Amino acid sequence: MLDKGKQALGSLLFFLKNPYVLGIVAIVFIITVTVINVVVIMGGTLQSESSDEDVENLYTVCTNGELNKEKFYAMFESAGAFTKKGDEFIAVSKKVSIDPVLLASIAFNETGSGTSKMVKERNNPGGLYDSVNKTFFTYPSLSDGLYSMAKNLFKNYISIGLVSIEQIGSKYAPLGVANDPNNLNANWVPNVSSFANKFGGLTMNCESANLGSGNFVNPVPNPTITSSYGYRIDPITGAQSEYHKGTDFACKNGDPIYASASGTVHTAIYEGWGGGYGHYVMLQHGDKYTLYGHMRTPVVKIGDKVKQGQKIGECGTTGSSTGYHLHFEIQLSPMGERVDPMKFLNKK
């Protein structure tokens, strides 16, 4: 048995010394490692398609009058100039009658969680600018700077009815303006919303926290309506009496499209004309259905269970479309009666 074992081992060593064999082994090893890496990367990508962060950035938690003190104060444990300053945010907010979570969320977003030079060197968490002296304000203390920021927030936004993060963002960080060529303003609403959720959720104006009090949320970030439900001029034919069966929202090529409510994927069309809708997804939510048209790419399949705010596709211009946008419908039966989405969406 030993002699046979030595003979086998000798044969194996001779076999491995062959340069052609070693080359083949090396190639097989490289291919195997590459395949494994691709699978891991694809797995991570697919998970991120419907991550909790997508939901968090779209849908803002809100509970009237109930400050989650544990989460709120935890955010101030290590926050640069804001460290251990949670009580100051609450005190200043009470003076001005605004939501401390809203004030803190904007301040954290504007200062990189209390680390910017503006707040550390000027005590100016709101980046308030002195137009007379053409420089940013410098305040004697952080409390003074917070108070000025809170007063500005109330005077220029909340007092005129801009109370939700989306409404404030439409004025503070408007989209498509000349001084924002890289479209960085598009990040303002989702970033501030994310901070608000980390603080435990907004505590005031909950009826407007997600643009109203309906059961459906907006299917795109930073929603801008480009064509409403009802009669309109057909953008393709020019006909005067075309009845638009849904609401169109502006979006850019590849922007995420979110599920307006939790439900089940009823239809998913990945190619072709799609009856004019192009590539589209239809979700069933009990006795109602939502349709998301002109997508570039749906990322769900029939039968999938989806959560409200989960990414289900990407903005495109497929089907009967004149440019990148989302056509959104709420239906009472599949391809049956349509209703005005704005009566159901979280929007006043």
TrEMBL record:
Stretches that traverse the bilayer: 20-41
Cleaved signal peptide residues: none
Keyword set includes Transmembrane helix: yes
Alphabetically ordered keywords of this record: Membrane, Plasmid, Transmembrane, Transmembrane helix
SUPFAM superfamilies assigned to the protein according to its UniProt record, in alphabetical order: Duplicated hybrid motif (SSF51261)
Listed GO MF terms: metalloendopeptidase activity
Gene3D superfamilies: Glucose Permease (Domain IIA)
A Pfam family the protein falls into: Peptidase_M23
Domain M23ase beta-sheet core, residue spans: 243-341
Keyword Transmembrane listed: yes
Protein name: Peptidase M23
Organism this protein belongs to: Aeromonas sp. Ne-1
The organism's taxonomic lineage, starting at the top: Bacteria, Pseudomonadati, Pseudomonadota, Gammaproteobacteria, Aeromonadales
